[in-house]
Amino acid sequence: MRAKITYAVTAAVLVVYFVLVGSRGLMLIRNGTLLTVTFGIAVLVLPVIGIWFLWKNTQFVKKANQLAAELDAEGGLPVDELKRTPGGRIDRDSADEVFTRRKAETEDAPDDWRSWFRLAIAYHDARDTPRARKAMQHAIALHEGKPVRA
Predict the structure, then answer these.
(1) Does 150 score more than 60 pLDDT?
(2) Rounded to 5 degrees, what are φ and ψ at 116?
(3) Nearest-angstrom CA–CA distance, 118 and 8
(4) Which of 77, 81, 86 is CA-nearest to residue 125?
């Protein structure tokens, strides 16, 4: 729940920022000189890119949460069997051990979104966020029946 609140607050702050930046861009354009119009258009590009990025991330999180809910309903969510340090951080060797099993599971069933979802969790636990995201995108694509890039 804490992560959802943090995400919502961050998204709200970004939207406010985009509105402020966009209004400044419009002010520059209304000024009417070649220089201010050019800068105004350039400034307006930033909120457009930011809103697109925020939208894509929100859709990704929404779809990943839907997969998690479906997998939970099936009883297929991975059990947290990781050892932790006294400070609560995941033990690297433990994460690597679980990752090895999840990788083998995915290699045995490459067309099963469930195995890709669990692999994404293993990548995340091993602190490999880019690969975790790619594995989750792969799981989402398989779940939606979309063609998957190798």
Answers:
(1) no
(2) -70, -35
(3) 25
(4) 81
